[in-house]
Structures are given as C-alpha cells and as structure tokens.
Write a structure and sequence with these properties.
single chain, 365 residues, alpha/beta, Aspartate Aminotransferase, domain 1, Aspartate Aminotransferase, domain 2, 2 domains, eight-stranded mixed sheet, five-stranded mixed sheet, 13 strands, globular, disordered C terminus, pyridoxal phosphate
C-alpha cells in the first residue's frame, strides 16, 4: 500500500546520516553501511600510488571508459562523479522539474539535493518491505527517484517494476549504491539500456572508501551528455580514478564477488540473531536489516555501547525502527546480549511478521 504527499521531511531529517551516530563516540559501529574490514590491500596500494598523480589536474575519461567496459556500456553512457552525492546534485539541477517524486523510505540525499535546488518534492510512501508494484506515483511526475535495493529497508525491487515507472518526458533515477553487495547483482539496470532511466552507483560501501568520494551514473547518451555539461571540472579526483581502475580489474572483480558473498552471510547471521531475540524485522537482501525493537531501543543500545542507525529521519518510519549493519557473527554478539535483555516495556514484544513475509524468505537473497 502506498500514498503520496506534497509535504516533506525537515532539512535536519534529510541531512542526518549514519556516520553521525558513531563519529567520535567510541561505540560499536552497527550504524554505518561501510565494509568493516576497510579497503583490500591492492586498493590501498593503488590509492597510495595515486599520490604521484596529484600534481596534475584529474581526467575522469579513463575511469569512465573502464566503467563502461565493466558494465558493457559505451563511454558516452557513463559519467564519473565525486560520490553518488554529486550525481544526485547534478540530477536535481538538470532541469526545472515540475513534479519531482522520491519514493520513501529510502536514502534521503536525493531528496535533500532536490530541496537544495529549490524544488518542491512529493513523497510517495511504501510500507516497509513493499515493492514498487504498490507505489502510486503521480502521472504528472517528471522525475522519480528510488533506491534498489532500498536503504534502509533492504527491499529489492523487480527490474520490470522499475521499468514500468518510465514515461515519455519522465526521468527515473535508480540509486544502486548497494547493488554490488548482492551476488550477481539481480534486478540491476546498470548493464541494460533504457531511455529515460539513469542508474547511480557508489564505490563507497563495499570497498570502504567513503573519504575518496568515488561514484558514477549510467544512462542514455542524451541525458548523460546533459549532465556532463553541468558537472564542474576536475571533481573526480586522482584517488577516485585509481579506485575505479583497481576495482574493475580482474583482481577487483574477484574481490567484489568474495565480499558480496561475505556480506550476504553476515546479513543472514544478523537476521537469525534478530529472530532468536524476538525482534521483528523486514526481510532484507542488502548488507543491513531494518528492525523494529521498539521506542527507546536506539537510546538503550547507545547506553550499552552500541550504535545503530536511528530511522525516524526516514520518511515513513518512526522511532520504533532502527537499521543495523551486517557484521561478522562475533561482532554481533553484544547486540544479541542487549536485545535479549530488553524488557517488554522498553521494547515491544515480538510480533509475527506481516502475512506473506516470512523472515527467512530472504536468507540467501
């Protein structure tokens, strides 16, 4: 079931991100969706070697060609950006959008970019765990932004449901920041051509390089050319270019597949832990899980030394929800101890999952 609203979240809500939960806190970090083991050795070496290139102005062209080859696209269909955030900013300022729509709950940065560009954004709300098939997107929408898999729900939208949103005169933007954490990248549009559809990717999460700011977008040549024309010069750094070349190498592809399998196992272990503690959650395919331990659980976990992502800043969710990052089983042990000790008064008793949503259904997504 979905609804759409003209009124939106506050700026403070839109600009709250998981890193604010842990920065300088010393807490166990289950809030930030960045691979906890950091970048692999070969990527570190590439980043160190890129220091030799900082005396020259950066050229994004070679990285864009490497990404095009990686995804089976043409170079003119790829635009390298300083993280996915720059891509969202460029898209927000591409046209004088008449009716931009963001499908929530999802990562709030695209919504924030549209507001900062002066647009009035309409919000389409999905129930946690629902896919786009139940979304009532206004026909007059000329821009629709969604995540796949969606952050924070971990829901994977079928490719056909994404394509069904495309209309003449409408641009559909799919944030696939976490798609590389899914083995085989099911339901991705990044390697497929579809006019009116743009995919945004980030190298931050699986490769653990948020400080590098490496992202890109892929779309039809006309749209990408228009975005390229408004991209400021030299925003894609030498370090970001080195990251692209490293992760699209044969060694990088092997490590990406290994990390995807690893993250999936951690996610399964996290869902098993939540199930054993009687904490309701939304079945996920992403390297995080949206859980509902109840109002006050977020603060109680912090008091016990554990940081999880508060979710009342995501449109459509309230203070009873938290997002938990997938981590190795041993790292999750303290979380299990605290959740098991929560009283029914401090955390609502476990409820049965909604009809048709068996928590174990997404165990191997």
């Amino acid at each position: 079931m979905a609804e759409h609203r003209a009124a939106g979240p506050t700026s403070a809500q839109l600009l709250h991100h998981g890193d604010a939960e842990v920065r300088g806190s010393g807490l166990l970090d289950l809030a930030v969706n960045v691979h906890p083991h950091g970048p692999p050795a070969f990527l570190r070496e590439a980043l160190e070697a890129s220091v030799a290139d900082v005396a020259a102005y950066p050229d994004a062209g070679p990285a864009e060609r490497a990404l095009a080859t990686h995804h089976g696209r043409f170079p003119e269909e790829v635009l390298a950006t300083a993280g996915a955030t720059e891509a969202f900013t460029l898209l927000a300022r591409l046209r004088p959008w008449r009716c931009p729509v963001v499908v929530h709950p999802q990562f709030t940065e695209p919504h924030a970019a549209l507001v900062q560009a002066g647009h009035e954004v309409r919000t389409v709300l999905l129930s946690p765990g629902d896919t786009l098939g139940s979304a009532s997107v206004p026909e007059e929408a000329d821009l629709v932004v969604l995540g796949n898999p969606t952050n924070p729900t971990g829901t994977l939208h079928p490719r056909a449901e994404v394509a069904a949103l495309v209309r003449p005169g409408r641009l559909v933007v799919v944030d696939e920041a976490f798609m590389d954490a899914l083995p085989g990248e099911p339901e991705s549009w990044v390697g497929r051509r579809h006019d009116g559809l743009v995919v945004v990717r980030s190298l931050t999460k699986s490769w653990a390089v948020p400080g590098v700011r490496a992202g890109y977008l892929v779309g039809d040549p006309v749209t990408v050319s228009a975005l390229r024309a408004v991209r400021p010069p030299w925003t894609f750094s030498a370090a970001a270019s080195a990251t692209v070349h490293a992760v699209t190498s044969a060694r990088g592809l092997r490590e990406q597949r290994r990390r995807a399998r690893e993250l999936q196992q951690w996610r399964v272990d996290l869902q098993d832990l939540l199930l054993s503690c009687g904490v309701p959650f939304v079945p996920s395919v992403a390297p995080f899980v949206l859980a509902r331990p109840g109002v006050g659980a977020h603060e109680h976990l912090r008091e016990q030394g554990i940081a999880v992502r508060r979710c009342d800043t995501f449109p459509g969710l309230g203070p009873e929800w938290v997002r938990v990052a997938a981590r190795p089983r041993a790292v999750l042990a303290p979380l299990g101890d605290v959740l098991a000790g929560l009283s029914p008064g401090g955390c609502p008793a476990a409820s049965a999952p909604p009809p048709g949503r068996d928590p174990r259904r997404a165990r191997r997504g």
